[in-house]
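Aim 2 progress update. The chain analyzed this quarter is reproduced below.
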Amino acid sequence: MAKFKREMRQNWQLWVMLLPAIIYILVFCYVPMYGVQLAFREYSFSKGITGGDWVGLKYFIQYFESPMFFPTLRNTFVIALTSIVVGFPAPIILAMIINQLRSKKWKKVVQTTVYIPYFISVVVMVSMINIMFANGSGVMDKFLKFFSIVSTDTNILGSADCFIPLYVLTGVWQSMGWNSIIFLAALSSVDTQLYDAARIDGANRWQVMMNVDFPAILPTVMILLILNMGNILNVGFDKIFLMQNSLNLGISQVISTYVYNVGIKSSQFSFGAAVGLFNTVINFIFLLVTNRISKKATGTGLM
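Predicted structure tokens:
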């Protein structure tokens, strides 16, 4: 306690600056946890969140025994893992390529160009996907079929096989420019003498990227990988929901859309809360496991 008082007395200005962020986290992150008990109660409109009868793990067991448990869990994992495997390295590679551009003018042009897609809203993005990949009339649909990348009788928007590549690749295109900012910031702190030494030793650009740039941003890469793994089951609801249709429902029905359809639309609020809490617990476990592996492998972690 004495140590805490001494800390507050010496650095009270810093704590005052942190106060708005602390209040925000308390109000919007911790206070809502009070509603988690809804997953263990029989919700009643008249009695409210805390007035329903305590039913324990009833709704968790109901979800585990549901025929939709394995399909939703599988779809969520497959989409999330594919997004991480394909999408996570993309901004790293882009940042290292941009960092190697010698012309400052071209570097600014490239950065601005790749940032722009991030500011397209999800609704507009899905509308663009629907127009460009429309069966028989979309530009990208014709392009892919002309080069036999997909068969001529394939409806890309309604194909279960095309859903994940379409979702992941359009997501990478939209976000990799913006996500590269943090890696460019990390690369800006690299000692320029390392580049000079590498060139004197005869290293080409690829060798400079792999032996100078990548080791410099590795701690940042690991921290962001841990954070991404902590959200592995939080597949974006809005984009998947907008891209979802009756033809691709077998692969596009994920936990978040299932919670919406069953918990919200069918007014099964306790069941929806239980499924959402299960989702959060799995994310937390992945966060801890990834953090532990990272600390053992690289010495870098969140805690």
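The chain has a mean pLDDT of 85. Residues 120 and 174 are 8 Å apart (CA to CA). These observations will guide the mutagenesis experiments scheduled for the next reporting period.
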